[in-house]
Amino acid sequence: MKLKILKSRILRNSVWSFSEKVISIFGLIFVTSLVAKYIGAENFGKLNYAISLFGIIQTIAWMGCENIIFQRTSKNAISGWYLIKLTRTIRDTAFFLTAIPLLLYFYYFTDQYTFYFGVAASVSAYIASHDLYTIYFNAQLKSKINTICNLIGLTISLLIRFLIVKLNTHILWLCVPIILVALIPFIIKFYIFNYGYRGNLYRYKKITYKYRKYLLKNGSKLLLYTLSIAIFTRTSQFFIGTFVDMRSVGIFTVAYTVGGGISLLLNSFISSLMVNVFSEKKDLAAESIVLKTYYLVFTLCILFFIFMFVFGEIIILFLYGEEYIESVRYLYIFIFSALFSSISNISEKYIMRYRGYHYLFKKTLILLLINILLTFMLVKYYGLIGAALAVLITEVLAATVLNYFFRNGLLLKLHFFKLFKIL
After folding, report:
1. SS3 assignment for the chain
2. Could you say which of 16, 159, 347, 421 would form a disulfide bridge with 143 (CB–CB 3.0 to 4.6 Å)?
3. Separation of alpha carbons 281 and 140, rounded Å
4. Residue 163: Cβ within 10 Å count
5. Band of the pLDDT at 74, cuts 50, 70, 90?
6. Per residue in 316-347, is it b (16+ CB within 10 Å) or e — as a string?
7. Which of 265, 336, 254 is nearest to 302 (CA)?
């Protein structure tokens, strides 16, 4: 009976999470396309250049704590709640130590638009670095709360972007929705979270040192892991902006947004379906969950690839216009990148089940070095196509070879003797 109830909760949680991602994808693509047309490929590149770099800063500010909070909360809600409160100082310190130098770089070495977009992106990143409530609610199978809060923020933000375009206002007004898309959901979730769970904090006041030591020990190992996910696509944007031009950053962003958009849907399913992997006591049952999640990812990616193969060029022309038609060349690469990224996401959560934090730390350090060197070389000599291929190669390595050394080939055996055999 309890198992049926849990499965029902997981299904409802997946539906809510999936619906949020669907609405987010369509909303972002349609309104972003209006903005892209309005400000042109070069300014659109500057906007996304700033947002992408501060996305890395946001990840650094998390210090790897989001994965620990997700795992801990799926087992013990009160313990996970306290971890969120305890990481506030850690996140603030990490954010300001990295954000201030980047803002100074924008101020002295970029133009006015890039600097102001950077300021707005930094404010949004700071707010998002404190929005670990999203992870908490996902781990507790309460994605309904995240969905409603995020949709309110997204709707208001997209409406403002739409009005900026239609009223033909100055492009720097785009800084406002950049901030609001993070601020509005955060305020709502902050109120819900603190109103519902505030009284439980006192149970853990006396063991603050124990929790802080736990976070620093395991979070530091996961920092490079989470940082790598943020860096893999953003290194391409950085090197494109450095070696090519800002217009090409805009082209790359459109291709990644449309082609890689499926990853948002896949990650929503993964977050919901993989919750039980951490709490499941039987290894075979956990393995079964992992395999089913793999199958879902493969199926959705194949369907999306067929759809984009038929309608990809039409969609780009309709939404973004002739100026962005070059992005069609890179759509399919990003679809396969999304596939391997999701496989990597599933596999790494499976590794976390066995507390393989140190393994992920070493793996990610190697992968990070490979990605930076690979992206540098491919973008410098091959431009945009090199940037797209660098993302794909990195994701393939992350999903396969670099996972196969864990626990005497645990994932190697799972892939080749069970997953690939059936596929």
Report:
1. CHHHHHHHHHHHHHHHHHHHHHHHHHHHHHHHHHHHHHHHHHHHHHHHHHHHHHHHHHHHHHCCHHHHHHHHHHHCHHHHHHHHHHCHHHHHHHHHHHHHHHHHHHHHHCCHHHHHHHHHHHHHHHHHHCCCHHHHHHHCCCHHHHHHHHHHHHHHHHHHHHHHHHCCCCHHHHHHHHHHHHHHHHHHHHHHHHHHHHHHHHHHHHHHHHHHHHHHHHHHHHHHHHHHHHHHHHHHHHHHHHHCCHHHHHHHHHHHHHHCCHHHHHHHHHHHHCHHHHHCCCHHHHHHHHHHHHHHHHHHHHHHHHHHHHHHHHHHHHHCCHHHHHHHHHHHHHHHHHHHHHHHHHHHHHHHHCCCHHHHHHHHHHHHHHHHHHHHHHHHHHHHHHHHHHHHHHHHHHHCHHHCCCCCCHHHHHHHHHHHHHC
2. 16
3. 18
4. 12
5. low
6. beebbeebbebbbebbbbbbbbbbbbbbbbbb
7. 336
**Over pLDDT 90: what percentage of the chain?**
26
Cα 102 to Cα 107: distance, rounded to the nearest angstrom: 9
Query: Is the separation of the CB atoms in 143 and 74 below 8 Å?
Result: no
Residue 251 near residue 41, CB atoms below 8 Å: yes
Structure-derived torsion over alpha carbons of residues 266, 393, 288, 67, reported in degrees to the nearest 10: -70
- From residue 174, give the alpha-carbon distance in Å to each of 57, 162, 180, 256, 346: 20, 10, 10, 21, 35
The answer to pTM > 0.85 is: no
Distance, in Å, from the CA atom of 159 to the CA atom of 149, rounded to the nearest integer, reads: 16
Please provide residue 111's backbone torsions phi and psi, each rounded to the nearest 5 degrees: -85, 180
Which residue in this structure is represented by tokens 């309709």? 318
Q: Which amino acid is at 412?
A: L
Helices 208-243 and 88-109, packing angle to 10 deg: 20
Q: Judge contact between 275 and 139, C-beta under 8 A.
A: yes
CA-wise closest residue to 251 among 312, 316, 327: 327
Residue with tokens 């029902």: 8
* pLDDT tens-digit readout, 287-343: 888 888 888 889 989 999 999 999 989 989 888 888 999 999 999 999 999 999 999
CB crowding 217-244: b at 16 or more within 10 Å, else e: ebbebbbbbbbbbbbbbbbbbbbbbeeb
